[in-house]
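# step 3/5: fold
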Amino acid sequence: MTSTQSQELIKYCVEQAQNDEKVSAKFADTLDGLQLLSGELDGQVKNGRASALTVDVRNAKLRLGYCYRCLELFVKARNIYSSTDAMKKSAHSLDLILKKHGIRRKMNQVDLHDLVYNLVDELSQDANAADVKAIGAEMPVKELMHENDEFSKALHNRTAKKPEAGSFHLNESRHKAEVAYRDFINKLNVVASMEKSTNYDAFIQLMNKEITFYKQNVISANKRAKTLAEKNLIEKPQEAPVSETTEAESDVTTQGPDKEVEAVG
């Protein structure tokens, strides 16, 4: 899971445990520690989202998206009115090329970058370059090429550069929070098994439903995204300029769906 997803699961666990009188009373000390570490992880996740490098990428993506929109509108305008039949024919050809690539400003980062790169490359081919010149779209195409280069630089900078030492400890905070989460779940499973009571059944059922959701939706979606990313189709899930797309690390023991909290991972 991503760090954000891990944090959301841990936060949900803490909230549900604290809302359950029997669970909160039995595991008060453990929950206090887990809540503290969950808060630290939340802060690090937010820190990563607000990092300057992430902001640079977001701004570069916005500029690229608006630049593409300008080219798209320019071509549409020439389709609405052209002074000659030849110009109108060129505008129509370019409009078909734009539609073929299916670029949308709000698509994910890697898709946007790759599709714009392919579009510019196609528009630079001799036959298409003649159509670009015919409708006077040389400058919009050059601007699009420039903005895509700038976007690529921003992506590479975010990947290559790390936050200043001492200011970012996402991986460390995540590890501590997940260890504390496992410790709490393991203790609860052991106590529930030894006491053979129904005191914790309500909480266990809530957590198992949530964990089932993560298994069937969140984690499976991450795996699909990772597979596609490896084929250079879409971007791997990421939230900050560090790698945080490891598999879920919230594993706990499991004996059954109703008496113990299930395993995630």
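# step 4/5: annotate
The CA atoms of residues 35 and 152 lie 39 Å apart.
# step 5/5: archive (pending)
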